[in-house]
Amino acid sequence: MHSGFLPLLRLAMHSAGTTEENEWGYDPKLRPLAAIVMASAAGECFVNNVIDVANTDACKPDLPTELDWHSFGLLAKLIDERADTKTKIGILVTSLTRKPADFGSGALQSFVRLTQLRNQIVHFKQSTSVPVGFGERGISFKAEHSKVIKQFEDEHLAAPERKGPNPLGMEQVISTTKIAWWACDATLRLIELFSGFGDTLFLTLTADVCRTLRTEFPEGPYFKPRTYA
């Protein structure tokens, strides 16, 4: 039932738990990058798992009685690998709640940000360094990062700005303990979202997994005990 998302998420959380920051505020071994990529992959794997389960006859009795099963005809389109994860989540949430998916806040917003951050890593482009001043040690540079990275800097989750001739690159800026745990939490919150849809299938699938993981990794700053109905 858990498919492959559980080992991926465990691997992400292990990477976050082994992060060690240096005096510049980032992990020189870049272990948070593994946490980000694995957490995002775990979320995508979970969504595909939900689609597979929703398209089996076995899950129909567990769905809410007020839900018209024919509305799940939309799910057939999601099998197409060309559909992105955000599209899949949007159709799933809309079908299950009869309300438009809100990607502007909460768990859905966090996971969208996680996938954007993951794309920054997978489709890597070196940050542009621009001169910002001149002092005793020569020209001072500052790295120009994307809006995705800038938001983490504004939230004080990224490594602090390093002044001097060698500014931190994108991969260093996001290699922090806070971002690593944030990434894991973003995927857990997505999974927990489905446990609130009120049917036995999703509660069984998601609540136990989330409870177990939050117990296994209590040291994470975002990992506080949560209760489930």
What would you note in describing this structure?
This protein is mainly alpha-helical. The protein has one domain. 52% of the residues lie in helices and 7% in strands. A two-stranded antiparallel ribbon has the order 1-2. A hairpin with a 2-residue loop joins β1 (128-135) and β2. The two termini are 20 Å apart.
List the helices and strands and how they pair.
Elements: H1 5-17, H2 31-54, H3 75-78, H4 85-97, H5 106-122, E1 128-135, E2 138-144, H6 147-154, H7 170-173, H8 177-194, H9 200-216
Antiparallel strand pairs: 1-2
Helix pairs in contact: 1-2, 1-8, 2-4, 2-5, 2-8, 5-8, 8-9
Computed CA radius of gyration, to the nearest angstrom: 20 Å
**Strand content range:** 5-15%
Number of strands: 2
- Main beta sheet: 2 strands, antiparallel
Strand order of the largest sheet: 1-2
Structural class: mainly alpha
Give the number of domains. 1
Morphology call: globular
Mean pLDDT: 75
The number of distinct helices, counting runs of at least 4 residues, comes to 9
Q: Which percent bin holds the helix content?
A: 40-55%
For the record, give the distance between the C-alpha atoms at the N and C termini, rounded to a whole number: 20 Å
Secondary-structure element pattern, one letter each: HHHHHEEHHHH
Which spans have pLDDT < 50 for at least 5 consecutive residues?
A: 64-70, 128-141, 225-229
In short:
The chain has 229 residues and is mainly alpha-helical. The chain has one domain. The protein contains 9 helices and 2 strands; from the N terminus they run H-H-H-H-H-E-E-H-H-H-H.
